[in-house]
Amino acid sequence: MNLGTAVGAAAVLLAVCLQGGCHESLPAYVSPGNVLAVATASYEQLNDHIAPPNRPLIHFVVTCENIHDEVFWDSVDVKGTMRIWWKRKPSRYRTLPITVKNITDRTLIRNGKLLLVPGQQFTLDLYWDLKSDFGLFLPTEMDWSNPNRNYCASNVYCAPPEIFVVEVALTVYDRLGSVSAPTREVTIIGRACVCSYYPPCGAGGCG
Predict the structure, then answer these.
(1) Which residues contact 71 (CB under 8 A, 6 or more apart)?
(2) 167: helix, coil or strand?
(3) pLDDT digits (tens, 9 = 90+) for 163-191
(4) From CA 207, how far away is CA 198, in angstroms rounded?
(5) DSSP per residue over 94-131, as a string?
(6) Number of CB atoms found within 10 A of residue 194's CB
(7) Domain topology for 32-193
């Protein structure tokens, strides 16, 4: 190739690059691993004043913590599930959806993004009414066979404790995907009123 041809080729290449025809290849984004840790931190069977035996409620608290060694800031798409199944009767289960509405402090999300410094965590609240996915009120299938009722409060008797298994899968950041919490077993006690018309189930008397 003579000098004139080389100069012409260089000029053409420069013109193409100036018009946007040359693009420097950027490395693809790779999300860091082990950014979030999710856990079913606690649960509570609410008392008769808040949730009487005929309207029970279990309160779960799920935590999500930044276990990465750097600040993490990215767009969020909070979604997931909490699946609760009866260890003695695995076919009885409930699947609770998780959304951004379950986050205790939603002010942490600004303009669709969430910033977490290392070690920072946020919590999510979920409530379960002891019904299965098919609307079955699970206390009705607990063991009430003991003829000597176990009275555990005024006008209230209890079934033997039952073990339920809690599984949580949660997506917080768009690009990180779903994170699963360690499986946790919880103990729930079925409660029933001796007389359904008398407190705490009702306001009247047995007649």
Answers:
(1) 115, 116, 117, 118
(2) strand
(3) 999 999 999 998 999 999 999 999 999 99
(4) 10
(5) EEEEEEGGGBS-GGGEETTEEEE-TT-EEEEEEEE-SB
(6) 14
(7) Immunoglobulin-like (2.60.40)
HSE of 104, CA atoms in CB hemisphere, 13 A = 13
Residues 6 or more apart whose CB falls under 8 angstroms from that of 112 comprise 75, 76
> What is the rounded distance in angstroms from the CA atom of residue 177 to the CA atom of residue 169?
10
What is the full DSSP assignment across 11-31?
HHHHHHHHTT---PPPPPP-P
User: Residue 185 corresponds to which amino acid?
Assistant: E
Q: pLDDT of 50-100, one tens digit each?
A: 999 999 999 999 999 999 999 999 999 999 999 999 999 999 999 999 999
pTM of this prediction?
0.82
Is the pLDDT reported for residue 111 higher than 70? yes
- Tally the residues of the chain: 207
